[in-house]
Amino acid sequence: MASLTTAPKVTVIGAGWAGLGATYHLAKQGYEVTLLEAGAYPGGLVAGWKTDQGKSVEAGIHGFWYPYQNIFGLVDELGLKPFTDWTRSAQYSPNGLEVESPIFQDCPPLPAPMGTFLYTQFKRLPVWERATALPLLYAMIDFDNSDEAWRRYDKMSARELFQKFGVSERLYKEAFEPMLLVGLFAPGEQCSAAATLGMLYYFIIAHQPDFDVVWCRGTVGAEIFRPWCEAIEALGGKILTGKRVTDISLDAQGNANAVICGEEQFETDAVISSVGISGLQNIISSSATLGDRAEFANVMNLGSVDVLATRLWLDRKVNIPRPSNAGFGFDETTGWTFFDLNALHDEYRDAAGTVIEADFYHANQLMAMSDGAIVEKVQRDIATCVPAVGEANVIDSSVIRLKRAVTHFAPGSYQHLLPRQTSIPNLYMSGDWVVTRHGSWSQEKAYVTGLEAANAVIQQFANGETAKIIPIQPDEPQVQVLRELNRALRGLLK
């Protein structure tokens, strides 16, 4: 390892939520931190940028849900006000409006999960169909985010899970699979039952307000990442873009002593990896050391999902009833969302026309289409939900194809996910796909694992204060009792 006569050197790979979180905290503790980002700007797939015409675009819109308390704490610390108010949302099929979701925290509180079930407004799905989900509550009680629970459910697909617990075919097709397509980014037969239970419990079942969501009032890159990066640099942290990592070198004791980017080397005392699955697979493929270790070789078994992000500028104002919406049934294996950016982004609030973002997940069959054909499809699909969109003219558009952009939690994938600590003592993992017992999800999970990796570095050098991580809200009393009874019963059966 490099000399420790001065502040320890830490190299962080990947400038998304995890990498920026780790870098920021270590810089605050006086570490010499260098953040390496392969792209042209920090933020990775979350950040936005400007087109040649000066219009803002980004690689998909990202929501910030009620349980994201660590991210909310971060923006407060940075003195930022990046978010909209809480928003209502809707779900559409080719038949029209199917579901409306209220702002749950404004509704009278009910014990979980009664509020979610009673206040969600289904337009066509009858009560008796929805009641077929009741047996599934046992699986949500049984799945407590422990290693044992992940292994128990992970090899089963979500489709098999819903069949096993008697969920009706109609409820699955019109409620649960649409959630999977926009939450886990794949059809039910391609999603891990464990990941499904984790997502459903975290966002929908645990506490009544958990599905409430706010959005950035512009791109995440401009509203959060840019000022965050400025704060990191003011603390002495270095952020270097255009640095694609190709290997990590080890010393004679098996510790990481340098991060390699082609012909460049960055000497280091510790390394935090904060890249996604596809990014790490690219590093492993080019590495002279990582591929020979079983844990990294097994990462090559993991998958990622294609995303298509589009933006349409219309020549007139169109009334879109709710700012955030999801669609299902338009393409068999693809989920999609669309957003009224006039209502969400300050930049477009007073625009003469309408600006709509539409994002498609598991978009394999759309990626090869021409930009023109994609724009026509997007306008046609949105017009099915909001007919006035079909009467407007598209005066500008953006189409962004993102190959292998988001994590695919496939059945059987848990055994190949990496924990924070690797077999290389001073190499730590973070990201939304890394195993953590915190219980968070998506962007919040990525940020939390970045803090956990920073804390591991601080413990390694016994230097600095660890980050204070806000735990997820405890289970409600009735859920705690049922989980304790379930654990006791499982223990007796063993």
UniProtKB/TrEMBL annotation:
Q: What domain of life is recorded for the organism? A: Bacteria
What's a single GO MF annotation on this record? Answer: oxidoreductase activity
InterPro entries annotated for this entry? Answer: Amino_oxidase, FAD/NAD-bd_sf, Zeta_carotene_desat/Oxidored
Q: Where is each Amine oxidase domain found?
A: 18-458
Q: Which Pfam families match?
A: Amino_oxidase
SUPFAM superfamilies tied to this protein: FAD/NAD(P)-binding domain
Q: What is this protein called?
A: FAD-dependent oxidoreductase
Q: What is the organism of origin for this protein? A: Romeriopsis navalis LEGE 11480
